[in-house]
Amino acid sequence: MVKVKPFAALRPPKAFAKEVASRPYDVLNSKEAKEEATEKSLLHIIKPEIDFDPIIDEHSQPAYEKAMENFKKWQQKGWLVQDRKENYYVYAQTMDGRTQYGLVLCAYVEDYMSGKIKKHELTRKDKEEDRMIHVRNQNANIEPVFFAYPDNAEINKIVSDVIKGEPEYDFVAEDGFGHHFWVIDDENTIKRITEIFATIPAFYVADGHHRTAAAALVGEEKKRNNPNHTGNEEYNYFMAVAFPESHLKIIDYNRVVKDLNGLTPEEFLAKLSEDFIIEKKGKEIYTPSGLHNFSLYMGGEWYSMQAKEGRYDDADPIGVLDVTVLSNLVFDKLLDIKDLRTSKRIDFVGGIRGLGELKKRVDSGEMAAAFALYPVSMKQLIDIADTGNIMPPKTTWFEPKLRSGLTIHKLD
Q1: pLDDT of 123 higher than 90
Q2: What does 141-193 look like in DSSP terms, one character per residue?
Q3: Which of 6, 97, 158, 171 has the most CB atoms lying inside 10 A of its own CB?
Q4: Which residues contact 355 (CB under 8 A, 6 or more apart)?
Q5: In angstroms, how far is the first alpha carbon of the chain from the final one?
Q6: Confidence class of residue 27 from pLDDT cuts 50, 70 and 90?
Q7: Under DSSP, is residue 215 helix (H, G, I), strand (E, B) or coil?
Q8: Residue 201: left (phi > 0), alpha (psi -120 to 50), or beta?
Q9: 214 within 8 A of 116, measured Cβ to Cβ
Q10: pTM score, whole prediction
């Protein structure tokens, strides 16, 4: 069962919330962040390289120092102010007329170490270490991680009662997504939320595997380095936004390849037809119709690729995934792309950009072919995490992303 606690968030006054809140550090490159950042934007703290002209290396010492300087400045200027008491918070997001409601809380470091906070992706040590430097330097979790948990009727009821009140923040960001935020400061409600989570078996990392690992590892590091450690210190916890699994929707995560490994388009289609039923769809964008159905765009034409019976294993949590089917039967077998993490011949396109982005990248001549996949379901993600398996790289894309800067958790 998981352990959670409320916390006194460092957060923007109502008048500054929209300007302070930013997209996460890993959604924008440095150039995009520099263009997007307004005066009070959290991007100056999470992407501090943008404050240099020209932009400097985000992993350099001056960038890390600038982040600390900016974090102090935001507090001095009153753009970030700490709540006087420990609260839980409701953070809701609206996209395409659908709203998902999450609870902002502190998760327990030991739950990550013991596997009660379950992951479905591998993390890279270099990325973990980069995020750990930020947490260490700032002595704070600046950006939340994104968790799912099994639906609970009583938590849903508490949230539905809270949102009847006036939101603390309520704005539409420049990408058109709505962000709504309430403070839960009633002591009885806070106590009950903590008690209910103590009956919930697990959290699932939906998005932010590197941030989760970094936050937990810094907490563990602080515990080791404190001879007077009691277990009650704030560093034993890290900040997350937890959503009931039924609220979350995973969107497609697609692939583009630079070449056909020496094959002509005709030869490539002929080889594909050994494992897939290929159907030409013409010039109009074709979207995959269901599991094991793929879209291929090549040479100005869209094709449906339906995996043939026996080419996938629906009884295996990894074998059933379309990323596995595509990796085994196309990238490895035909294109000789063995490692999706390191190959320079493949790139990944989040479904939020639409299938038109795949067409554009092939039509420009940059890529030889594009593949669109049917999205993974939350059930598939949970099955994989529960069985201790790891998804192939770039399998899930969650949207909308959490805005960073609405809450910050100090570790002291």
Answers
A1: no
A2: E-S-EEEEE---HHHHHHHHHHTTSPPSEEEE-TTS-EEEEEEE--HHHHHHH
A3: 6
A4: 254, 285, 286, 287, 295, 297, 372
A5: 25
A6: confident
A7: helix
A8: alpha
A9: no
A10: 0.90
